[in-house]
Amino acid sequence: MVDFPALETSRLTLREIVELDAENIFRIHGDAEYMRWFGSDPIPDLDGAAKLVATFASWRKGPVSGARWAVELRDQPGLIGTCGLFRWNRNWRSCVVGYEIAPAHQGRGYVKEALKAIITWGFREMQLNRIEAQVHPDNTASLALLEALGFLQEGRQREAGYWAGRHHDLLQYALLKAQWSTANAV
């Protein structure tokens, strides 16, 4: 991917994450309570957020690449969350989806709207056949979101994740291109 794929929905702009987003990234990723489901420890400071921005940018250049979008409201610029397709296995035509949104913006359907856009883009532009997600079993909101998008649970990965000083089971979900209906496409 040479040019970053900017996407738009009726309420959102999905764009490249840039250094100016580090403060908003820190507000989300520095919140220990909110990050309990994310799969990594909270970022300790603004420098850590800047490093995360650089990590997201590096995904476009690596051999197992992907893309992470800044999610912002169309009428109010400023990152409110991120979503991405990463660990892209070109030979298998598969990748993993990840997402988070600031607590103040939860419950408004923004993540679902953003995911519809990137999933559609992934199936069309990346030629994906399979998109996977791993979610903590107690993250009921994320599980409901994935199921609403058509992801199916495939099993439990015992102690597959490690954060907050302990191992965590994760539920494996996946969505196949054949299951993605045109009604979901944006």
Level-1 CATH class name = Alpha Beta
What sort of overall outline do the alpha carbons produce when their principal axes are compared? globular
Strand content: 25-35%
N-to-C span: 21 Å
Give me the count of strands. 8
Round the mean pLDDT to the nearest integer and report it: 91
Q: Helical residue percent?
A: 10-25%
Query: What is the correct CATH architecture?
Result: 3-Layer(aba) Sandwich
Radius of gyration, in angstroms, nearest whole number: 16 Å
Number of domains: 1
- Spatial ordering of strands, largest sheet: 1-2-3-4-5-6-8-7
Which structural class do the helices and strands define? alpha+beta
Query: What does the largest sheet look like?
Result: 8 strands, mixed
* Number of helical regions: 4
Annotated CATH topology: Aminopeptidase
Question: Quick one: CATH superfamily?
Answer: Gcn5-related N-acetyltransferase (GNAT)
Short description:
The chain is an alpha+beta fold and 186 residues long. The chain has a single domain, classed as Gcn5-related N-acetyltransferase (GNAT) (Aminopeptidase, 3-Layer(aba) Sandwich).
Describe this structure in words.
With 186 residues, the chain is of the alpha+beta class. The protein has one domain: 3-Layer(aba) Sandwich (Aminopeptidase). It is built from 4 helices and 8 strands; from the N terminus they run ββααβββαβαββ. The protein has an 8-stranded mixed β-sheet with strand order 1-2-3-4-5-6-8-7, sandwiched between helices. A hairpin with a 3-residue loop joins strand 1 and strand 2. The longest helix has 16 residues. The chain is globular, with a radius of gyration of 16 Å. The model has no long low-confidence stretch (mean pLDDT 91). Pfam families: Acetyltransf_3. It comes from Variovorax rhizosphaerae. It is an enzyme of class 2 (transferase). This is GNAT family protein. Its EC number is 2.-.-.-.
